[in-house]
Amino acid sequence: MKIVALSEVPHHATQITDWLWQAFGDGTSREFYHSIVRSSLNGADFPVTFVALDGDIPLGTVGFWRCDLISRQDLAPWVAALFVEESARGKGLSKALQQHVIDFAQQRGHDKLWLWSTFGGYYERFGWQYQCDALEFPDVRVKVYSRDL
């Protein structure tokens, strides 16, 4: 298994878009996720999408985003849109994807990362610290976590 930037394997962009839309797109159009994925292909600092591959088969994805929570634009950067294909779950891939973004952020001089989740008890296992509750647009209460790098 290897983790690479989506820009290295752009032929997987449609699959990543579909995963994100299906996993996180409640009330949001597929086009919204397509625009994020497409933006990550242009080589800018943000967003960056990573893909975990077994050979050339995508198993999961994670993003490195400037902002993933409109109500907390004062916080940056973010681990975002972490998704692992159901058949690949329970094998440490989520941890590997998180660590990949942590390493990537450190290499770029960041000293802290943020993420949010609608549930608690998962990210704490990977060293994330609960910071506060916040609102995901328009009115979903979420938990905000940080991790010093």
TrEMBL record:
Leading EC class: transferase
SUPFAM superfamilies according to UniProt: Acyl-CoA N-acyltransferases (Nat) (SSF55729)
CDD domains tied to this protein: NAT_SF
GO molecular function: acyltransferase activity
Keyword Acyltransferase attributed: yes
Domain N-acetyltransferase intervals: 1-149
Gene3D superfamilies xref list: 3.40.630.30
Keyword set, alphabetical order: Acyltransferase, Transferase
EC number(s) stated in the UniProt entry for this protein: 2.3.1.-
Highest taxon of the lineage: Bacteria
Name of protein: GNAT family N-acetyltransferase
Lineage: Bacteria, Pseudomonadati, Pseudomonadota, Gammaproteobacteria, Enterobacterales
